[in-house]
Amino acid sequence: MRYQISGKQIDVGEALQTHVRTEMDLMLEKYSQRPTDALVIFSRNAHEFVCEATVHLSTGLTASAKAHATEIYSAFDKTLEKMDKQLRRYKRRLKDHHRVRSAPVEFAGAPSYIVAGRNETDEVEPADLQPVIIAEMETRIPSLSAGEAVMQMELAQSPVLVFRNERHGGLNVVYRRDDGNIGWIDPQH
């Protein structure tokens, strides 16, 4: 298991790093026997500590959780509890997914852009309507079934997931609707 434990303007001591590794290893042993990556970031928001954790499972899926508390250890413990709950909820599906899949999930690269939003002080739209790109990066698009895509979106606590449908190879989107249900966009190819 490879860990990356860091703090944003916080010194993360050796004792906290050891605690994170030990507790994460114990939790992940229940769900995944294969090596994984874990990224844990601590930060401070006013009087509270914030802990964000992302775990890349050997199946290619990603689980993430975030919590805050007045103590840094409590923030991590709450984050770990949320992640444990997610993985417990999907344990059977994760095992079935791994058994059926002979190779890890494949990913394709795609450019990703962050576009500047409209300021609230802007009263009139500009005539050219050309968005200002403020960041450009590479993103990964997984090849999954629709069911696996919904599970991945839930595990990552993401409102939307773009994926390549394994059945026909086309790009699809799953997203959380305002009514709490999941929407699935499968355009004709």
From TrEMBL:
<dbReference type="InterPro" id="IPR003489">
    <property type="entry name" value="RHF/RaiA"/>
</dbReference>
<dbReference type="InterPro" id="IPR032528">
    <property type="entry name" value="Ribosom_S30AE_C"/>
</dbReference>
<keyword id="KW-0963">Cytoplasm</keyword>
<dbReference type="Pfam" id="PF16321">
    <property type="entry name" value="Ribosom_S30AE_C"/>
</dbReference>
<comment type="function">
    <text>Required for dimerization of active 70S ribosomes into 100S ribosomes in stationary phase; 100S ribosomes are translationally inactive and sometimes present during exponential growth.</text>
</comment>
<dbReference type="InterPro" id="IPR036567">
    <property type="entry name" value="RHF-like"/>
</dbReference>
<dbReference type="InterPro" id="IPR050574">
    <property type="entry name" value="HPF/YfiA_ribosome-assoc"/>
</dbReference>
<comment type="similarity">
    <text>Belongs to the HPF/YfiA ribosome-associated protein family. Long HPF subfamily.</text>
</comment>
<comment type="subunit">
    <text>Interacts with 100S ribosomes.</text>
</comment>
<feature type="coiled-coil region">
    <location>
        <begin position="73"/>
        <end position="100"/>
    </location>
</feature>
<dbReference type="Pfam" id="PF02482">
    <property type="entry name" value="Ribosomal_S30AE"/>
</dbReference>
<dbReference type="InterPro" id="IPR038416">
    <property type="entry name" value="Ribosom_S30AE_C_sf"/>
</dbReference>
<dbReference type="GO" id="GO:0022627">
    <property type="term" value="C:cytosolic small ribosomal subunit"/>
</dbReference>
<feature type="domain" description="Sigma 54 modulation/S30EA ribosomal protein C-terminal">
    <location>
        <begin position="130"/>
        <end position="183"/>
    </location>
</feature>
<protein>
    <recommendedName>
        <fullName>Ribosome hibernation promoting factor</fullName>
    </recommendedName>
</protein>
<dbReference type="InterPro" id="IPR034694">
    <property type="entry name" value="HPF_long/plastid"/>
</dbReference>
<keyword id="KW-0810">Translation regulation</keyword>
<dbReference type="GO" id="GO:0043024">
    <property type="term" value="F:ribosomal small subunit binding"/>
</dbReference>
<keyword id="KW-0175">Coiled coil</keyword>
<comment type="subunit">
    <text>Associates exclusively with 100S ribosomes, which are dimers of 70S ribosomes.</text>
</comment>
<dbReference type="GO" id="GO:0045900">
    <property type="term" value="P:negative regulation of translational elongation"/>
</dbReference>
